[in-house]
């Protein structure tokens, strides 16, 4: 698996080279946009409404500060403001696990030691985080952004989960339907609690299947089989007619020739017909 980021993990006396890998994958079926009459793939053309098609080197990044008004930003401008910790993940503190709202968690990554010399130190830090039962809070620069992350342990890996900023999580008060309603009926509360306990069991995620995805894959498999069959049939050579034996094959041209002669011969006269009868 290819690493998405490599740098150094820094925490107090710890400073080790590490790599970061994606912890998730997307197995969902995707579709391409095609031109229905000929099944050619649709291409998105980069066009300027004033000058028509444009080249890649003619495209600039722009920030809209007023409606229809922009300032451009070059690669040099972005390089100048790159954070200093471009290749470091700095752990700045630890917090109890209930201090982080689950809505703050965004994308998870696996962190691994980069090289044999980092293995022992990595294992020491991993087990220390596991035993603490806490989240490590740090900062990392990815794709030119300084991102807040939480560190925790899953099996034999340190997990680095990017966190949303506090102002990216909306307040529930924005949803009017959620305001001003409280459960008052104690009997209903008791019944609901009993139902929850009755349906509490060990979680087995593998038992939950995306049945739509399964039906979609089955349908696509059948369509692909039909398409391949049609390709084979279209590419097959045209077979010449076969005869049961060589004699019938040889007799066919002679019979056809005799028939053509009879069709071309002039009709017999009355005298010829009388001679034939006599």
If you had to describe this structure to a student in words, what would you say it looks like?
Strands 1-2-10-13-12-11-9 form a seven-stranded mixed β-barrel. Strand 11 and strand 12 form a beta hairpin. 31% of the residues lie in helices and 28% in strands. The protein has six helices and 13 strands. With 278 residues, the chain is α+β, with helices and mostly antiparallel strands. The chain is extended, with a radius of gyration of 39 Å. Among the domains are: 5-22 and 81-167, Ku70, Chain: A, Domain 2 (Beta Barrel); 46-80, no CATH class.
How would you concisely characterize the structure shown here?
This protein is of the alpha+beta class. It has helices spanning 75-80, 119-132, 186-198, 211-235, 246-264, 270-277, and strands spanning 5-11, 14-22, 34-35, 40-41, 47-48, 52-53, 61-66, 69-73, 88-96, 105-113, 134-142, 145-154, 157-163.
Number of helix segments? 6
The overall average pLDDT, rounded, is 86
From the 3D coordinates, which CATH architecture of the domain at 5-22 and 81-167 would you assign? Beta Barrel
Distance between the termini: 103 Å
Radius of gyration: 39 Å
CATH topology of the domain at 5-22 and 81-167: Ku70, Chain: A, Domain 2
Order of helices and strands: EEEEEEEEHEEHEEEHHHH
Number of strands: 13
- The oligomeric state is single chain
Strand order of the largest sheet: 1-2-10-13-12-11-9
Secondary structure: helix percent? 25-40%
Structural class from helices and strands? alpha+beta
Output the CATH class name of the domain at 5-22 and 81-167.
Mainly Beta
Beta percentage is 25-35%
Query: Largest sheet at a glance?
Result: 7 strands, mixed, barrel
Shape: extended
As residue ranges, the low-confidence spans are none
């Amino acid at each position: 698996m290819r690493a998405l980021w490599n740098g150094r993990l820094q925490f107090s006396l710890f400073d080790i080279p590490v790599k970061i890998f994606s912890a998730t994958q997307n197995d969902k079926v995707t579709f391409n946009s095609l031109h229905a009459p000929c099944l050619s793939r649709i291409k998105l053309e980069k066009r300027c409404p004033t000058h028509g098609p444009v080249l890649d080197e003619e495209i600039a990044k722009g920030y809209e500060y007023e409606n229809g008004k922009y300032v451009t930003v070059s690669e040099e401008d972005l390089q100048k403001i790159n954070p200093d910790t471009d290749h470091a993940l700095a752990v700045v503190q630890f917090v109890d696990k209930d201090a982080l709202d689950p809505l703050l968690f965004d994308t998870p990554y696996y962190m691994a030691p980069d090289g044999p010399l980092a293995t022992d130190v990595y294992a020491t830090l991993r087990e220390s985080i596991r035993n603490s039962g806490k989240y490590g809070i740090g900062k990392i620069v990815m794709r030119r952004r300084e991102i807040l992350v939480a560190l925790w342990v899953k099996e034999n890996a340190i997990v680095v989960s990017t966190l949303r900023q506090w102002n990216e999580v909306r307040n529930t008060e924005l949803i009017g339907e959620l305001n001003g309603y409280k459960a008052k009926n104690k009997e209903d509360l008791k019944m609901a609690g009993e139902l929850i306990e009755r349906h509490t069991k060990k979680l087995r995620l593998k038992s939950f299947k995306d049945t739509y995805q399964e039906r979609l894959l089955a349908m696509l498999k059948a369509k692909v089989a039909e398409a391949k069959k049609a390709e084979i049939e279209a590419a097959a050579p045209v077979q010449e007619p076969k005869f049961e034996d060589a004699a019938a094959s040889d007799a066919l041209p002679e019979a056809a020739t005799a028939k053509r002669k009879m069709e071309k011969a002039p009709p017999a006269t009355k005298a010829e017909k009388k001679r034939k009868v006599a």
